[in-house]
# Entry
Amino acid sequence: MKLEALDDVRDSAFFKGLEDGDLALLAESFHEKELQEGTTVFVENMPGETLYLIKSGAVRITKMMAEGEDKIVLVLGPEEVFGELSIIAGGQRTATARVAESGILLSLSRRDFDTLCERHPRLGIKLIRNVAEVFSRRVRESEQDYYDMLRWAMRRNSSSKELL
# Structure
C-alpha cells in the first residue's frame, strides 16, 4: 500500500507523532479491505492476530452477555483503531467486531508488525506507545462508565427504599 492510502486517517491516535517517512514505512505493512454492513470482522474468544484502522464507515464492538445476548460496548468510526492489543500481546479477542456501516478497514497483522519493529525499532517503539495510549484511554473511559452505572444503581436502589 502507498502512503497516499493513509491520507484520510493521518489524524488517527495510532499515528500520533509519526512523520511522513514513518508513515511511508508503515503503509507498506497495511492491507486494505472494503467491507459491507453486517460483516463480522472477528468474534469474541477467537485468536487475535490483527489490528484494524477504520478508513471509512463504522464498526460496532460488542460483548457476549448471558443467554447469547450481545451488549454494544463501542461504536467506532473513521481514524479509530480496534484489536490493537493483538499486535502486541496476542491472545484471544475480548469482544466481537461487526461492520455497522459499510466502509474500508486497514489491517496490520502481528507478523507484519513484528517485521516492521525488527527493521525499524524506533518506529516500533512509537507505535507501541500509541497503542498503549489508545488502550489506556479506553480503560479510563470504561472505568468511568462503570462508576456511572454503579452510581445510577445506588440512586435507583435508595429511591426504591424510600417508596417502601
The chain is about 35% helix and 30% strand. The helical segments are 20-27, 110-119, 121-163. The longest helix spans residues 121-163. The CA atoms of residues 9 and 140 lie 24 Å apart.
